[in-house]
Amino acid sequence: MQVALRDYSKIEVGEYTETFTNLVNDGTAMTKDFTGDNDIVWHILDATYATDQGSGASVSIETGVVTSEPISAGIKNLSVNLYNKDNTDNKTVKVGLYVNGTLVGTSENNSNNEVYTYSISDVDLNGKVAIEIRNLSDTTSPVVIDNISWETMPEIIIPVESITLSETELSIEQYLTRQLTATYTPENITDLQVKWSSSNPSIASINQDGEITALSPGETLITLIANPGNKMASCSVTVTEVVDETYTETFNNIQKTGWVNETYTGDNGFLWSANGKAVTGYINSTTGLYNKNTNIATSEAIPGGIASFSISCKNKWTGGRASTIELLINGDLVGSSTTTTDNVNYTFEVNEINIPGDIVLNIRIGNETIAIDNITWTSFKGISLSTNKTEGINASNIYPNPSTGKFSFKNLKDTDAIKVYSAQGKLILDQKVSNSDTSINLEGHPAGLYLVIMQYNNQTIQSKKLIIK
């Protein structure tokens, strides 16, 4: 059975021997891991089981390798019993002993079928060590190894003397993240262990990589404790409230009148693609567009998210027939309006969209002609609990919340898809839903705040916040 190599095996200061007693003979050629004496895992590569030394199990290597997992407590000296098997022509057999990948000694012996011991003193390495034994001979005669013995180094602990943080004061806008880094002295600290914490994690949380997530306005103290030495450093964090911005696209930067199908730089420096007839005086005295059966206006990817949207409209030459205009965000339908009035100004609005991150706005016109002007939207930089647009689930029906990553949804209504966004607006989950009770798994994502959006027929039904702790 394979045994997974660990980061390292922790042992006390003392003398140790690997006898291979725990190695199971399961074939002529072995490549396997096994747990040996002192609960240390060893890796056997291309070797055979042997009993030639008369002392029980041992390992015969010709081209193979025997390696330990990293072992704590260092190494002062090292020895191994060797046996040149069937070396009838008495060629020199070379065996290399390595520690942490570095050759520390080479045994050279031309005996045949005799046990001999090769020892190395003054290896003198502190910290974690990995022992490795290789047959370095030109001869094809295998060498049998047994009783790998070593003495650890006296425990020398080098503690943390000081910590320097990249920042000692920070101001972060709500829902954004910042990275704190730490520099420790001296550089050769023994088994450095660190722990980050926040005095008020509801204001700002921090993971064990030092990444801060701003959750709500207020102040908190981020603390780092480093051991050995129990040294501490801190950073004062102020989380400021999100200020959403409002933008308007007037179409006034379209360079010509008449039918256009072009990309231009609009108000606020954003690129837009316009497909329609550019005219003045249809809705107001400035430039507008009209068309039907098309995507009349599409933006580039615009940062900052979207909370709400409005646009000035007028149905043209419809004779009272139903005229439909739709808003798509990132390709998903989030709202539509159908009216029968003709040649009357009206406003198409969509509220509580609440999609963070980069957004692409797309205005789509149905079968009847509609003139449009003044596309207006408010950014959405953060995550909040919105009012349900249709009857749906309460926050209590998402459980557990906070969670380590697994969330269950109960009594979902009018929902066929679930999307989850990070606080930075990155889509991290897009899952179809077929039952009123379902679950999602966000394990592996960093602790912090996330936005879950429930959709039906590509329209946003409601949005809620999730917290991964």
From TrEMBL:
Which SMART domains is this protein grouped with? Answer: BID_2
Q: Which intervals hold domain BIG2?
A: 159-236
What Pfam families does the database record attribute to this sequence?
A: Big_2, Por_Secre_tail
What keywords is this UniProt entry annotated with? Signal
Q: Key word Signal present in the record?
A: yes
Cite the SUPFAM superfamilies for this sequence. Invasin/intimin cell-adhesion fragments
Q: NCBIfam families, per this entry?
A: Por_Secre_tail
Q: What is this protein called?
A: BIG2 domain-containing protein
Which organism is the protein's source?
Algibacter lectus
